[in-house]
Amino acid sequence: MRYTISGKQLDVGDALSTHVETELSETLEKYSQRPTDATVTFSRDGHLFLCDSVAHLSSGLTVQAKGSDTEIYAAFEACREKMDKQLRRYKRRLKDHHKDRSSPVEFMEAGMYVLAADEDEWESRDETGLQPIIIAEMEARVPTLSVGDAVMQMELAGSPLLVFRNEKHGGVNVVHRREDGNVGWIDPRSAG
After folding, report:
1. Structurally, how many domains does the chain consist of?
2. What is the DSSP string of 90-152?
3. I need a labelling partner for 19 at 20 to 30 A (CA). Which of 27, 68, 156, 172 fits?
């Protein structure tokens, strides 16, 4: 497994790096036998140390957690405990996911754009009205998953929504966390 352990404007020593590798390996291997790589980034916000961790599993799923504390080791432990809790919650489904899926999750490349938030900066067009200004362009990876796996991936990544390709019909779908705490699923094909 590959590890990238770094600090934003702080030095991450060998002792902390070794501790992170050992503890994170133990956590990931307990629930998922095939993690491929992990990125752990430490930073500071005032008197708090922040730890942001992202682990990629060989199945194509991603697990992400964040932690903070007044000490750097405690910030990592808070992050690791959150990741452990997420993985424990989906332990059975992660193991079943490996058995049912013979190959890793497929990804489709898609364009992703950041638009200017201020309408005063938008360009004016004659027939089409106001057009937003694109301030950044990036590539996004859209996974091909079942609806259940998409909800699990959204939860594991700690994301408010996930755009995915439905493996049943190949159409683009969205799952999202609703304000009432439930999960919403948008399937344009079922609109009728």
Report:
1. 2
2. THHHHHHHHHH-SSPPPEEEEEEEEE-S-GGGSEEETTTEEEPPEEEEEEEEEEEE-HHHHHH
3. 156
